[in-house]
């Protein structure tokens, strides 16, 4: 991993935390239950992370790495798979950020559908990502964090499910 790529990744992650922290601070309510506070934080961080992860895939070196992952994994319809992965991550992230920013101001039915859609999108994307990570034909050099075991992928999937659980618990 080059120094330039490391600086880019750290800048993106830092800006993600700053933006999410700002909106979390705005929605902070000291009377919220601990599980609701945790769910708000998790919703914001997951939303920002997914939006960032989908967005960076439009820029090098990430776009090249993502295209190589798809080509080497021999996913069907490679161009469609690439766009579905990127736009799916961005859509799930935006939905989560809308839930976090809109909060209780949103219609309950709309908020519930947005949470369901973001969880289903994230689950589908992460399942495909686990599959790609486990293929012997895909080297670690083209994977996120250049790590062959899908640790981060499974971690994000677990957080998405935990977030959905906390959301439904706090309804």
Describe this structure in words.
The chain contains six helices and no strands. Helix 4 (78-102) packs antiparallel against helix 5. The protein is mainly alpha-helical and 171 residues long. It has helices at 3-26, 34-56, 62-73, 78-102, 108-134, 151-170. The longest helix has 27 residues, at 108-134. The protein is 77% helix and 0% strand.
List keywords for this structure.
globular; 6 helices; mainly alpha; 0% strand; single chain; 77% helix; 171 residues
Secondary structure layout:
Elements: H1 3-26, H2 34-56, H3 62-73, H4 78-102, H5 108-134, H6 151-170
Q: Which sheet architecture does the biggest sheet show?
A: none
Q: Sketch the topology as an H/E string, one letter per element.
A: HHHHHH
N→C terminal distance: 43 Å
Mean pLDDT: 82
- Unreliable residue runs: none
Q: How many helices does DSSP assign?
A: 6
The tally of strands reads 0
Output the radius of gyration. 17 Å
**Shape label:** globular
Helix content: over 70%
Report the sheet-strand fraction. under 5%
| Helix/strand structural class | mainly alpha
């Amino acid at each position: 991993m080059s120094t330039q790529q490391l600086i880019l990744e750290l800048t993106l992650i830092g800006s993600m935390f700053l933006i999410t922290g700002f909106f979390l601070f705005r929605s902070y309510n000291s009377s919220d239950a601990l599980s609701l506070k945790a769910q708000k934080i998790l919703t914001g961080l997951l939303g920002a992370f997914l939006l960032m992860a989908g967005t960076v895939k439009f820029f090098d070196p990430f776009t090249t790495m993502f295209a190589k992952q798809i080509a080497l994994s021999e996913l069907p319809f490679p161009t469609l798979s690439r766009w579905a992965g990127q736009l799916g991550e961005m859509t799930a992230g935006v939905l989560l950020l809308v839930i976090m920013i809109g909060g209780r101001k949103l219609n309950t039915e709309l908020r519930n559908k947005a949470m369901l859609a973001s969880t289903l999108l994230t689950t589908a994307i992460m399942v495909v990502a686990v599959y790609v990570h486990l293929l012997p034909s895909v080297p670690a050099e083209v994977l996120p964090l250049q790590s062959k075991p899908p640790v981060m992928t499974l971690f994000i999937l677990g957080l998405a499910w935990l977030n959905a659980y906390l959301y439904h618990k706090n309804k």
